[in-house]
């Protein structure tokens, strides 16, 4: 599947370059320290998925101009703001293979740089002078904070259902990706049928990305994903593979899993036991099945558009969302 | 001066009631816990200065309708968001006589409720569908976060100048009060001369409020202001009274002050010594003089408007800003 990634990267290379330039140009803090902290995370190898989606969504609706890359930064700045705050909240230590900002500069300033990026994103949104885009971006931001709160409230709660999980990931990840696609369509002044198709595409894609991320937390190499395996569970976050396994397990295995999950600091051996039980009850296979359904649903939405190279790229992104290795 | 406060409250009683209703009506989180945490601070006896200023600014420009109170909540929600984050950042324990939110619900959720209120404020701003208001609100939010960062960077630095101090308080307090006045004028579709007058009035008023707050940190009763006396200095925040005293003091007294300021945890006796030195070098009197100049400058701006009862109220607010006891 590295082939798919390479192929994709080749097709969007020029767009990615424009995004990098726009990110530097539109950060514009007064203070060097703010730039330094923001850049530590912004330029640490993010996939630029959200800004790329806004550009591709505008393009598939026939819109192409120099402003799109600038407005695309809204979504990367918002994303970075939430990552800065989430890492503080989760007590994370590593992100994208680098020490997290708050471990270098401290919690107080990291919270404030997060606030700055949130405000910066909304400021750039206001520069579109398009009330619908501004509304999408601000409502999205509101939903995301509530998604994070919901997740926090459900920490360590092994009674969490698949429905609860989907509701959390829809808010904390889905909405931003959905919003990027919708904003691209609005910038293009697309007909409602196209705006709706892209919005729905984005909402499925967002779920795929998050489910894939949650699967990687059980399956990937730390060296590849740049964070610690099993990190979600250590933070008390129950994701789809384990939620499904808990539901499918008999009482004995379920009891073993609950004991490990609720242990304040489980050992690598206990994590291995948990993984084996998650596999026994097909937790990862199940999560992949659900994600695949959303890949298919995302692609169906693209059928609204006539065939074109950009439609192919958007198809490929749906496949990549699920099959990436990091 | 309690007379002035009573008189003012009588004149704006109906507006304050409308503001309270609008604050309840426009909070609208999905989660009860978010409402509970936000309300803990929102309904803890805030002065409603910012929403009141938007209503009065619109009124002096001849604008009066039911939407103004709703849009006035933008400024109270933003203000509350910054207080929630500031209390986390400063490690504060008491605010308005109550334990701070993060001491009850923990830091993570408090950060997220702050994010929610920030987003909520920008969402309500977007509902004005007025690009200028949206721009003012989002730029203001950006500036405020940078003001807080600047203050944080200057913590415990006794070389801070009066100019640095003014620059910090302009960003962290002035801008929001200035923004409220400007937004009232924009809502009223006021002529530029009136919008500018109110904006400048607000910027002076904001400085007066913050300088008065900083004076109270040296002079008030804990029971009255609802927080600990000397709290700023304990947090390493050097404000105008001490900045002036440090500048005016001879080398010996200056050395004594610097020793106390840089001590990790000074005693009540040391704080008394510091207060005596601040008084010896007229630190508080000097801060009052500067604030009085801004009161006068604020009032001068109001001369742009013909005499009216609302102009009188705005005059009184400038006096109240300086002479309040809490």
Helix content of chain A: over 70%
Tell me the series of helices and strands of chain A, N- to C-terminal: HHHHEEHHHHHHHHHHHH
CATH homologous superfamily descriptor of chain A: Farnesyl Diphosphate Synthase
- Strand count of chain A: 2
Main beta sheet of chain A: strand number and arrangement?
Answer: 2 strands, antiparallel
Query: Would you identify the regions of chain A where 5 or more consecutive residues have pLDDT less than 50?
Result: none
CATH class of chain A: Mainly Alpha
Give the count of helical stretches of chain A.
Answer: 16
The CATH architecture of chain A comes to Orthogonal Bundle
The average pLDDT of chain A is: 92
Give the helix/strand class of chain A: mainly alpha
Major beta sheet, strand line-up of chain A:
1-2
Q: Which two chains have the most extensive interface, and how many residues on each?
A: A-B, 42 and 42 residues
Question: Which value, in Å, is the CA radius of gyration of chain A?
Answer: 20 Å
Provide tags for this entry.
Farnesyl Diphosphate Synthase; 326 residues; 16 helices; mainly alpha; two-stranded antiparallel ribbon; homodimer
Question: Can you offer a commentary on this structure?
Answer:
The structure is a homodimer of 326-residue chains. The first copy, chain A, has 16 helices and 2 strands. Chain A is mainly alpha-helical and 326 residues long. The radius of gyration of chain A is 20 Å and the shape is globular. Chain A has a two-stranded antiparallel sheet with strand order 1-2. In chain A, a hairpin with a 2-residue loop joins strand 1 and strand 2. At the A-B interface, helix 4, helix 6 and helix 7 of A face helix 4, helix 6 and helix 7 of B.
């Amino acid at each position: 599947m590295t082939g798919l990634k390479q192929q994709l990267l080749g097709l969007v290379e020029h767009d990615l370059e424009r995004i990098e330039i726009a990110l530097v140009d539109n950060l514009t803090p007064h203070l060097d320290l703010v730039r330094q902290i923001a850049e530590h995370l912004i330029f640490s190898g993010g996939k630029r998925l959200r800004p790329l989606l806004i550009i591709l969504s505008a393009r598939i609706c026939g819109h192409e101009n120099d402003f799109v890359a600038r407005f695309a930064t809204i979504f990367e700045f918002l994303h970075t703001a939430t990552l800065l705050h989430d890492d503080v909240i989760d007590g994370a230590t590593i992100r994208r293979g680098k020490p997290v900002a708050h471990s270098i500069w401290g919690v107080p300033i990291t919270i404030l740089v997060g606030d700055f990026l949130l405000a910066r994103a909304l400021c750039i949104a206001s520069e579109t002078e398009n009330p619908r885009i501004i509304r999408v971006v601000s409502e999205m931001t509101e939903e995301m904070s509530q998604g994070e709160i919901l997740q926090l409230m459900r920490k360590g709660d092994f009674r969490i259902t698949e429905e609860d999980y989907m509701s959390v990931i829809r808010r904390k990840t889905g909405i931003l990706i959905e919003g990027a696609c919708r904003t691209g369509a609005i910038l293009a002044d697309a007909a409602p049928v196209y705006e709706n198709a892209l919005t729905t595409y984005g909402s499925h894609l967002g779920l795929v990305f998050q489910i894939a991320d949650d699967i990687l937390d059980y399956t990937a190499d730390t060296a590849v994903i740049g964070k610690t395996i099993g990190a979600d569970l250590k933070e008390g976050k129950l994701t789809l593979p384990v939620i499904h396994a808990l539901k499918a397990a008999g009482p004995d295995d379920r009891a073993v899993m609950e004991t490990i999950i609720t242990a304040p600091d489980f050992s690598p051996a206990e994590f291995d036991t948990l993984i084996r039980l998650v596999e026994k009850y097909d937790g990862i296979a199940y999560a992949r099945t659900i994600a695949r359904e959303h890949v298919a649903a995302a692609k169906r939405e693209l059928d609204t558009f006539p065939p074109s190279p950009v439609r192919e790229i958007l198809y490929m992104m749906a496949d990549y969302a699920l099959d990436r290795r990091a």
